[in-house]
Amino acid sequence: MHQTPHRMKHSARHEFERWAHTYDRSILQRLVFQPSYRAFLTELVRWRSDDPRPFDMLDVGCGTGTWPAMVAATELPVGRLVGLDYAYAMCRLAHEKAAAIDDAAIQFVNGDSEHLPFADASFDLVTCSNSFHHYPHQGAVVREFRRLLRPGGRLMIIDGFRDNLIGWIAFDVLVARAEGDVHHAPWSLMRRYALEAGFGRVEQRKFGVLIPLFITVAHVAEL
Ligand SMILES: C[S@@+](CC[C@H](N)C(=O)[O-])C[C@H]1O[C@@H](n2cnc3c(N)ncnc32)[C@H](O)[C@@H]1O
Fold first, then answer.
1. Which DSSP helix (H) or strand (E) runs through 130?
2. Distance between Cα 60 and ligand 1 center (Å)
3. Most buried in the list 53, 110, 134, 189, measured by CB within 10 Å?
4. Fold of the CATH domain 5-20+30-46+53-167+176-219
């Protein structure tokens, strides 16, 4: 059943307010979320390990903040680190997790991916993992991500790969049944969103077999 955009966001918020407290113990950590953080890390290290300039990162749909905390723990020259999530409970847990590892540098903001409360060109990297399928206006969100990025910046999105039979069953059938009205963007549509939002080069890579995921890395041209 297709819901209105407002209901779609409301049901995502409701689902994650309830799930927040057990999220880090879910079996999906091993199957989906941890492999996603590792894929981000591979891309990030490849991109920034030889660059001494600090970079600012925003993670949208950050959940309990595991990925920003992982970035903070690297040797990379990290500048500002911000996580944003629509579910208040997720932001609160993310904040507690960062405080527990004594990382006051990570900020967490309660907000909606469609209306990001940051100035134009204020980040070098925007990441978004396993959250994009909850957004009713996906093209508008990618334009919003583009707005926040500086010249030479990058967007990295990870979500379910539903373009083969296993992925279609996993995401369009099983996840859609469990989560309600969600939209896993096909590979080609994700690429189109990025190009239409004004990104230059777009690279994509699939990973995982039984639960296939894919990463889209979109580049903002240097000045
Ligand atoms: C499956 S969790 C992924 C969390 C984290 N990125 C990870 O990979 O562990 C999806 C997250 O997206 C958030 N979310 C859903 N709709 C959102 C929206 N419109 N704006 C921001 N966050 C949203 C949810 O609250 C939830 O925390």
1. none
2. 7
3. 134
4. Rossmann fold (3.40.50)
- If one residue of 15, 32, 59, 85 were mutated to test the ligand 1 pocket, choosing by the most ligand atoms within 8 A of its CB, it would be 85
- What percentage of the chain reaches a pLDDT higher than 90? 90
CA triple 144-64-58, angle to 5 deg: 30
* Average pLDDT of the residues in 22-47: 97
Which residues lie with the beta carbon below 6 Å from any ligand 1 atom? 9, 12, 16, 33, 36, 60-63, 66, 85-87, 90, 112-113, 129-131, 134-135
- For the whole model, what pTM was predicted? 0.96
CA of 87 to the centre of ligand 1 (A): 8
| 74-65-108 Cα angle (round to 5) | 105
**pLDDT tens for each residue of 34-45:** 999 999 999 999
Of the residues 86, 110, 175, 181, which should be mutated to test ligand 1's pocket, given the most ligand atoms within 8 Å of the CB? 86
C-alpha 160/C-alpha 217 separation (Å) is: 15
Q: Can you name the residues that pair with 110 across neighbouring β-strands?
A: 85
Lowest mean pLDDT, pick from 26-35, 81-90, 104-113, 194-203: 104-113
Ligand 1 atom nearest the C-alpha of 37 is 8
Confidence of residue 162 (pLDDT cuts 50, 70, 90): very high
Residues 6 or more apart from 169 whose CB is under 8 A from it? none
Measure 59 CA to ligand 1 centroid, in angstroms: 10
Distance 223 CA to ligand 1 centre (A): 32
pLDDT of 3 higher than 80: no
pLDDT of residue 101: 76
